[in-house]
Design a protein that fits this description.
The chain is α/β, with parallel strands linked by helices. It is built from eleven helices and eight strands. The protein has two domains: 5-175, NAD(P)-binding Rossmann-like Domain (Rossmann fold); 185-306, N-(1-d-carboxylethyl)-l-norvaline Dehydrogenase, domain 2.
């Protein structure tokens, strides 16, 4: 089997989209799922994902589905990515089986977002080859992959995974310490905590807060991150503004009662057709189409920067 092959454990939405991104970059992706339904749906999802990327849809042939870990072509695989359900006991079982089958020099990565990587890999004998490879949905479109170093990760393993992600067309960021939420989700939750506080205190509506982010400071994020933006605008301005604003920011140590109440009554968004807003099937389809079209446009902008 040719080199540039990856094994993905779990063929659901995340696993299929990870496979799509590798296929688009010229890699072979070997996806294991015990579910016949999931395996049957894999080719169709990968084909659609490749089309949305503007890639050759024929590359879907590079993605193969397997019913068991033992069936995977282990001798040619360069990286294993676990992308199963966020169930710690399940992840422990998967990694134990993978460790017994995968050649000892292959990095083993977890796509976990809810658990620290140290917890996922701590029972393995070869845990020094375990790290995080945290993708963001939709994984075939969002360029970022966080390469997370667990307490026991060999730095050379993390560097190798980082190099593989670059070769596969992604933008890897090394997360040097295994902390809850890693990097991007911590930043995202800091924003959401303040957004919820503003809503809960009657400062603005959900529509107003979303607009302030999308059409205000968030509009700049396709062009640069927060540090580069402040390099442009000046850190002195940031310092003086922060001195006035920081004392009044939310420092809540738990999600607000508003959010707890929503979750308890099942108002969790499009999945239940009720969240901050009420949803119909038509409105959900329309909003998801708009969202993906905007993501595709952003993806193309970032791709042009590479040229």
């Amino acid at each position: 089997m040719a080199k540039n092959s990856v094994a993905i454990i779990g063929g659901g939405i995340m696993g299929a989209d990870i496979a799509t991104s590798f296929a688009a970059a010229g890699w072979d992706a070997h996806v294991m799922s015990p579910s016949q339904k999931t395996r049957d749906a894999l080719a169709g999802r990968v084909t659609k994902g490749l089309e949305r990327l503007g890639a050759d849809a024929g590359r879907a042939e590079a993605v193969k589905a397997y019913a068991s870990l033992a069936d995977l072509p282990w001798s040619g695989i360069e990286l294993v990515i676990e992308a199963v359900t966020e169930d710690l006991a399940l992840k422990h079982r998967v990694f134990a089986e993978v460790e017994a089958l995968a050649p000892p020099d292959i990095p083993l990565a977890s796509n976990t977002s809810g658990f620290q990587v140290t917890e996922v890999g701590k029972h393995l004998k070869t845990r020094s080859r375990v790290c995080g490879a945290h993708y963001f949905m939709p994984a075939h479109l969002v360029p970022l992959v966080e390469v997370v170093c667990a307490e026991f990760t060999d730095p050379k393993v993390a560097e190798r995974v980082e190099a593989i992600m670059k070769a596969a067309g992604k933008v890897p960021v090394m997360v040097k310490k295994d902390i809850p939420g890693f990097l991007a989700n911590r930043l995202q939750h800091a924003l959401l905590r303040e957004a919820m506080w503003l809503l809960d205190n009657g400062i603005a509506t959900p529509e107003g807060i979303d607009a302030a982010v999308r059409y205000g400071f968030g509009f700049r994020f396709i062009a640069c991150g927060p540090f580069m933006q402040k390099e442009m605008s000046g850190w002195d301005t940031n310092f003086y503004a922060g001195s006035a604003i920081y004392p009044s920011l939310s420092n809540a140590s738990a999600p607000p009662q508003l959010l707890k109440d929503m979750v308890e009554r099942g108002a969790i968004g499009m999945k239940t057709k009720q969240g901050m807003w009420s949803w119909t099937d038509e409105a959900i389809a329309r909003e998801k189409a708009r969202y993906e079209k905007a993501l595709q446009a952003g993806f193309q902008i970032l791709q042009r920067e590479k040229q």
